[in-house]
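User: Could you go from structure to sequence for me? I need the amino acid at each position, not a summary. Structure tokens:
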């Protein structure tokens, strides 16, 4: 399974090291958010890796919604539990829940279909910054604190008309940013297509904390650093 190198399974317990999480963020998602660097003070496992592990374990359903309740740290033991009502919860040994999933409709466990959908969604999701967020923040005249950029993955969901798409693709349909004080709620709506035909829709919500006035020079520095990290990683790969 393509996710094997990004987590360690012992019985029913899943652990994700900071190195595994960072490797997934850069290699699969193209996500260079410093919060996923192993040495980050506020390190957290990418939500998209938890999303991918849920699909790998429980399959791809026609309707799914994911709520990210807390950030997962380095090596936290996790249990992926399917409840009687169809929900999936990802919790630690103390019962703290990090992710809750609701699902309905038909489900496929076809590994090729599940992996293709996972990869296309994660590649789309990894483009949060600078591709989607920078234009929105510039338009609203706000940005995250350049010294402590914090963008939290709040939730996502999608609805598929069918489950046989072996080469799906996602594209941004609409995006918006609502500002309330120092908090910004970002909504990214997307279309899902396969073989040139739309087969579904979905949306993703992000929360940007510590907003301040937009500073073009500071933003340019952050974007330059993003592409520097991207180039350095690709040179090592």
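Assistant: Here is the amino acid at each position, in order:
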């Amino acid at each position: 399974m393509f996710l094997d190198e990004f987590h360690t399974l012992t019985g029913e317990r899943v652990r994700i090291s900071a190195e595994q999480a960072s490797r997934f963020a850069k290699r699969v998602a193209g996500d260079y958010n410093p919060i996923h660097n192993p040495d980050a003070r506020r390190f957290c496992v990418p939500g998209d890796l938890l999303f991918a592990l849920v699909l790998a374990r429980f399959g791809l359903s026609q309707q799914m919604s994911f709520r990210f309740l807390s950030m997962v740290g380095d090596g936290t033991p996790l249990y992926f539990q399917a409840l009687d009502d169809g929900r999936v919860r990802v919790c630690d040994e103390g019962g703290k829940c990090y992710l809750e999933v609701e699902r309905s409709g038909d489900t496929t466990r076809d590994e090729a279909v599940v992996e293709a959908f996972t990869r296309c969604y994660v590649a789309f999701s990894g483009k949060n910054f600078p591709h989607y967020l920078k234009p929105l923040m510039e338009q609203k005249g706000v940005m995250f604190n350049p010294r402590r950029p914090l963008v939290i993955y709040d939730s996502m969901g999608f609805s598929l008309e069918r489950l046989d798409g072996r080469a799906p693709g996602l594209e941004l349909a609409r995006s918006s940013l609502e500002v309330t004080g120092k908090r910004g709620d970002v909504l990214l709506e997307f279309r899902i297509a396969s073989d040139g035909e739309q087969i579904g829709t979905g949306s993703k919500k992000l929360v940007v904390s510590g907003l301040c006035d937009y500073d073009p020079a500071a933003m340019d520095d952050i974007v330059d650093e993003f592409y520097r990290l991207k180039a350095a990683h690709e040179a090592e790969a």
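One structural detail worth keeping in mind: Residues 77 and 94 are 10 Å apart (CA to CA).
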